Amino acid sequence: MQALPRLALIIGLGLSAPAMAQNSVALEPGLAGAYLAARSAALSGDHREAAIQFQRVLRADPDNQAILADAMLALAAIGDWDQAASYANRVHEDSFDRDFANLIEQVARIRAGDLAGASAAAVEMTGAGPLVDPLLEAWLYLAEGDMSRASATFEAIIDSNSPVAGLVPYQYALARASVGDFEGADAILSGEVYGPLQFSTRSVQAHAQILVQLDRTEDALQLLNLALSQNADETLFVLRDEIEADPTRPYDFIITPEEGMAEVFFSLARALGTEAGTTLPLIYARAAHAVDSGHIHSAILAADILSEAEQYEMAEDSYEMVPRESPLFVQAEMGRSEALFQQGREDAAIEVLHALARDYDNLAAVHTALGDALRREERFEEAIEAYSDAVNLVELDQQRYWFLLYARAISYERSDMWDEAEADFRAALELSPEQPNVLNYLGYSLVEQNRNLDEALNMIERAVAARPDSGYIVDSLGWVFYRLGRFEEAVAPMERAVELLPNDPIVNDHLGDVYWMVGRFREAEFQWSRALSFDPEPEEADRIRLKLDLGLDAVLAREAGTDQ
Q1: Chain centroid to CA 370: how far?
Q2: Are 209 and 253 within 8 A, CB to CB?
Q3: DSSP labels for 12-51?
Q4: Mean of all residue pLDDT scores within the chain
Q5: Phi (first) and psi of residue 397, to 5 degrees
Q6: 476 in Cβ contact with 468 (< 8 Å)
Q7: Contact yes or no for 153/160 (Cβ under 8 A)
Q8: Phi-psi region of 389 (alpha: psi -120 to 50; beta: other; left: phi over 0)
Q9: What is the phi/psi pair of residue 232, to 5°?
Q10: Backbone angles phi, psi at 507, to 5 degrees
Q11: Do 410 and 433 form a contact (C-beta atoms < 8 A)?
Q12: Contact assessment for residue 505 and residue 536, using Cβ atoms and an 8 Å cutoff
């Protein structure tokens, strides 16, 4: 889905900026420390710590309107809707933050089953916000058994200039399917009524189930296979297997108004994106899961948002909310492994993937993730084994598996198994002939081995054409010119590589070598000195110091055994 316009973030959603963004907050004596700690945590995205500290302030100053807003925001962001709701009723009706309090209270009504109260608030536009309320209102009419008013509400939003109008056909289709109107739902999802809808895993799930109800099993399977060729979401694999096993599988995607309202919040969270910040989409994802605890995609979305915000401990907790029986458990565990990695808990991260590989040994993605983690830790021989397990589970004629071969090739190369590495690099290029990473790595490796230099130059030139702003690839181009003895031609790409990667020791070292070969000795020494300042590997550092002491010619002669 495309991100909603920035105007929707600022005005249309009815969510105000947190009070912490204001210039000053009036505080009772002795609360400045807790407030500053809360504000710092909130600004860094640590909503858990922010909630603790803001509540500490509120215990001493319970009616501070600015702090109430901040506390509600932090609590909603960590999914503590009960505590957030306990503060919402303290917010004054004329408060700048009343809109956000309304959202908290609307979620609380829906969770408590007070759909009549939620409907009244939506009609009065005092619920979840002026763009959200009409969508919720439609589902709430459906809860009352009034499909006619629900349909009229959906259609009115579609015909309006609302920033969320593009999200509504999908919601409308789900509403129709929930009451058994599968023909009407299919007409919308197929694009017949409102034109093509934006692709998403959720819409494919819904549409495939709807097609099954219309006795169009083959169409459902074809739709799923097409989607799986673009996105290997495990829920789609599971659904495909279920339909193949039972062509009469009942529809169960969205069957209650509460589930429909959860999907509203989830869809908005995805549509918002994180360009304007992670807090609001996180809150909507949390709301979706609060309204429907079975909405597993929303738990994973919240975890993904937290990971993007570098709040890895909270992300880990959110991934752990996915139950083992869910088709998304494997995806969640791989996300949790990455969150552990980012916390510096590498062994725990790898153990999560080892456990997955044992329990789900038929999933190539699991073995690939394990290989990636092991390669990341430079455990290359173990990585080769994991990648090979993945290779044995896939059909290698599909283009998307170029990366699997490429990753195993790197592990082979780092294990000094060049023949196997070259075979995988070339097989990856057969799948994706112009893939710049493969072209560059293979080309650079050939250059380092002083083999097939013309072929290597061709590969690297193609890689540069595809990625002209990649410092490493441009460095490779300069280096192959150097290896070919075409030193003047090497200068420009090596200088460009240093512009792109000014703090890389290898690139600066390479430029020093090129400068030396064209007689620019003082500049060469300057680049080698720069390279040393960027903490190269010990062996490389020793060689650079030797060049500074003796000059490149003497070092090369010594290495060739021709020095006197």
Answers
A1: 18
A2: yes
A3: IT--PPPGGGSS-----TT-HHHHHHHHHHHHHT-HHHHH
A4: 91
A5: -90, 0
A6: no
A7: no
A8: alpha
A9: -85, 60
A10: -65, -45
A11: no
A12: yes
